[in-house]
């Protein structure tokens, strides 16, 4: 079995990944600075002797011995990545350099959690991996988008220059249990608001679209990508092509929670992408992967989770 490093392992996706890797009998080293993650996300794993946790910020060098690296460390919600935007860019760029340097020294295979945000506010719809994107370099989302774009560049240059085994995954909006209740992302916001009977906050007119993937599907795709043949680098889109407007999402959340919450409209944040939907042909072909959990089904599981953590 492999010794696997998961950076950002105490976060939403990272904690699910650690769990799945431990279930497959791997040794897992979780590295996190707890900026947006929490010990609560991983406390159920602490009894496992193959699980180890280290508080560490990936913008600083890290010397450990591992076989594989999943680089997930980075705040993902606009509210959090805009809180300290300089640190966000540093996390993506310096974090990538350090993890790539580590991968080079120990000859580990390394996967980067990139994002659909590399496509910016896209003019090509749905987005295939070949689309170069439309990102504002100087806007409030740029710290995240450009940081992730630069990390992709670093991954491909370490691959070309140092022959590293890299895998680049472009993750589209993912939701599920262990999203932080005050994370600020739309699915957690709407569910928490609905359960508390508070107004549901629609930004803009709510006509912008996103495609929502349930976390279990996403993690399955991530592990399949890591285990593809050495000559396959990606980038690969992983997401659910089911596309919904924010008004449709609000309507589904209200129906599934039975909430009496009303809708309120807030200004649309700057540079908010108008549409987003993955073309997953490549994932289907190379990973034999596609999502299996429909929006209503995934929302129900997420609502069940939030009922336990949110007090009305
Ligand atoms: P999250 O905020 O729950 O998790 C990120 C984790 O990284 C947290 O535990 C946080 O404390 C940690 N972290 C942040 N900066 C760090 C640093 N400098 N050093 C060490 N740890 C640090 O977010 P998530 O949804 O789990 O996202 C995980 C990864 O997937 C991120 O890289 C994100 O960009 C990417 N991604 C997620 C989505 C999504 O919809 N969830 C979409 C696209 C990409
Ligand atoms: N690095 C690390 N752990 C290691 C090896 C390297 O964190 O096990 C960091 C190191 O601090 C360096 C970065 O990764 O700044 C890039 O390493 P690389 O060997 O590619 O470049 P160099 O050391 O020449 O800058
Ligand atoms: N959004 C919304 N209400 C909220 C939070 C978000 O209408 O309470 C909108 C937001 O403007 C965006 C979409 O939902 O158009 C998805 O936002 P999120 O922050 O979840 O992800 P991202 O914009 O990074 O895709």
Automatic annotation (TrEMBL):
Keywords: Decarboxylase, Golgi apparatus, Lyase, Membrane, NAD, Signal-anchor, Transmembrane, Transmembrane helix. InterPro entries: NAD(P)-bd_dom, NAD(P)-bd_dom_sf, UXS-like. Gene3D superfamilies: NAD(P)-binding Rossmann-like Domain. CDD domains: UGD_SDR_e. Its cofactor is NAD(+). Pathway: Nucleotide-sugar biosynthesis; UDP-alpha-D-xylose biosynthesis; UDP-alpha-D-xylose from UDP-alpha-D-glucuronate: step 1/1. This is UDP-glucuronate decarboxylase. The lineage of its organism: Bacteria, Pseudomonadati, Pseudomonadota, Betaproteobacteria, Rhodocyclales.
């Amino acid at each position: 079995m492999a010794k696997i490093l998961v950076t950002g392992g105490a976060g939403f996706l990272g904690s699910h990944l650690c769990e799945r890797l431990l279930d497959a009998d791997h040794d897992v080293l979780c590295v996190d600075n707890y900026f947006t993650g929490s010990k609560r996300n991983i406390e159920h794993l602490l009894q496992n002797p193959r699980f180890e946790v280290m508080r560490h910020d990936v913008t600083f060098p890290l010397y450990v011995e591992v076989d594989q690296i999943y680089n997930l460390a980075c705040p993902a919600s606009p509210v959090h990545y805009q809180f300290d935007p300089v640190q966000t860019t540093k996390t993506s760029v310096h974090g990538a350099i350090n993890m790539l340097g580590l991968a080079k020294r120990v000859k580990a295979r390394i996967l980067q959690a990139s994002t659909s945000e590399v496509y910016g506010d896209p003019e090509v719809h749905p987005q295939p991996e070949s689309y170069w994107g439309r990102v504002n370099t100087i806007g409030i989302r740029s710290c995240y988008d450009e940081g992730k774009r630069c990390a992709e560049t670093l991954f491909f240059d370490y691959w070309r220059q140092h022959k590293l085994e890299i895998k680049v995954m472009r993750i589209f909006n993912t939701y599920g249990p262990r999203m932080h209740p005050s994370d600020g992302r739309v699915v957690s916001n709407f569910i928490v608001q609905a359960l508390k009977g508070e107004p549901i906050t629609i930004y803009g007119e709510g006509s912008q679209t996103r495609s929502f993937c349930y976390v279990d599907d996403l993690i399955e795709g991530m592990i399949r990508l890591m285990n593809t043949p050495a000559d396959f680098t990606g980038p690969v889109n992983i997401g659910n092509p089911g596309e919904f407007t924010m008004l449709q999402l609000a309507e589904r959340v209200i129906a599934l929670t039975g909430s009496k919450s009303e809708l309120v409209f807030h200004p649309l944040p700057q540079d908010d992408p108008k549409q987003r939907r993955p073309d997953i042909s490549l994932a289907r072909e190379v990973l034999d992967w596609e999502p299996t959990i429909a929006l209503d089904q995934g929302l129900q599981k997420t609502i069940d989770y939030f009922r336990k953590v949110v007090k009305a």
